[in-house]
Amino acid sequence: MAADVRRPRTVREAAPAKVNLFLHLVGRRPDGYHLLDGLVAFTAFGDRVEVTPADDLSIAVDGPFAAQVPADGSNLALKAAVALRDLGPSGEGAHIRLEKRVPVAAGLGGGSGDAAAVLRALTRLWRWPRDHDLHDLAASLGADVPMCLAGMPARIAGIGDRLSPCASFPSLPILLVNPGVPLGTPEVFRARKGDWRPALPAFATDDADGLLAALADTRNDLTDSARVLAPSVGTVLERLTAAPGCRLARMSGSGATCFGLFPDAGDATRAARRLRREQPGWWVAATRLR
Ligand code: C5P
């Protein structure tokens, strides 16, 4: 018997956590959005999205951080699904299951990554052409959604929506540490003081030593304002900096998650074990850049 092409099936997509390896503020648009110069990468750790055919669009959230995510129309992943459906001809539905493993309002692009993963999953479920350009739709959902849709290491410009993908990138071990304090992105941007920087020239990202050397001259310009709003960011950074084998400790996005880059995966796991023991209230994940 020929396969039924309409047979219900499940499509799964990863929603990797995003880290801002550096984030410089280079200006401000009249609408208040900040112009950025930065480098983003993604980790092997992240949320998970699963979509199955249904008549309408709906979402259910589970996983360790589910309680902090709305499962209604205000959920960015569901908004992405609605926007995608409205763009297409057929008005199809789907049930979305989101496994929320990444802390919320944490500087790891969780909501944007979920929305991007839903766009990828639904275009597969609904059998849209693979080359359908979703950049503008992604950008309309949030400044970070296009980079999450691309899902690859990239230099970013504009408000974060202009991407120059990195040809190659080291799969460095990385430790993510969040002190359990949610930070609102608009508040952190608003609290930030200081001048604009000039954008940096492009630099090579292919090997770990070169990347770490180039990153040494960069920083995250939102760190000071995040530390004012959440002083525990400073404590996390101190602990990561002091961890044996940590070559770079920095905050991601608007915080409060910070990361440590460790060329040796064993050092990263040992640091994770120690931090979990000594700071049981912190969220700690040892993973890799992908
Ligand atoms: O685009 P998104 O909804 O993710 O942005 C959330 C908020 O973060 C914006 O309303 C703005 O206050 C701030 N933001 C910014 N500059 C950016 C990105 C975000 O000021 N490039």
Automatic annotation (TrEMBL):
| All copies of domain GHMP kinase C-terminal, residue ranges | 201-278
- In short, the EC number is 2.7.1.148
Matching entries from Gene3D superfamilies are given as: 3.30.230.10, GHMP kinase, C-terminal domain
What residue stretches are annotated with the GHMP kinase N-terminal domain? 75-151
Under which pathway is this protein filed? Answer: Isoprenoid biosynthesis; isopentenyl diphosphate biosynthesis via DXP pathway; isopentenyl diphosphate from 1-deoxy-D-xylulose 5-phosphate: step 3/6
Q: Which GO terms describe its molecular function?
A: 4-(cytidine 5'-diphospho)-2-C-methyl-D-erythritol kinase activity; ATP binding
Which residues carry out catalysis?
K18, D144
In the record, biological process GO terms are: isopentenyl diphosphate biosynthetic process, methylerythritol 4-phosphate pathway; terpenoid biosynthetic process
Asked if the keyword Transcription regulation belongs to this entry, the reply reads no
Q: Does the keyword Kinase apply?
A: yes
Q: Which UniProt keywords apply?
A: ATP-binding, Isoprene biosynthesis, Kinase, Nucleotide-binding, Transferase
Report any Pfam family annotated for this entry.
Answer: GHMP_kinases_C
Report which reactions are catalysed by this protein: 4-CDP-2-C-methyl-D-erythritol + ATP = 4-CDP-2-C-methyl-D-erythritol 2-phosphate + ADP + H(+)
Q: Which domain of life is it from?
A: Bacteria
Q: What class of enzyme is it?
A: transferase
- From the record, give the transmembrane residue ranges: none
**What is stated as this protein's family in its record?**
Belongs to the GHMP kinase family. IspE subfamily.
- Entries under HAMAP family matching the protein: IspE (MF_00061)
What is the documented function of this protein?
A: Catalyzes the phosphorylation of the position 2 hydroxy group of 4-diphosphocytidyl-2C-methyl-D-erythritol.
What this protein is called in its record is: 4-diphosphocytidyl-2-C-methyl-D-erythritol kinase
Which organism is the protein's source? Stella humosa
Question: What gene name is given for the protein in this entry?
Answer: ispE
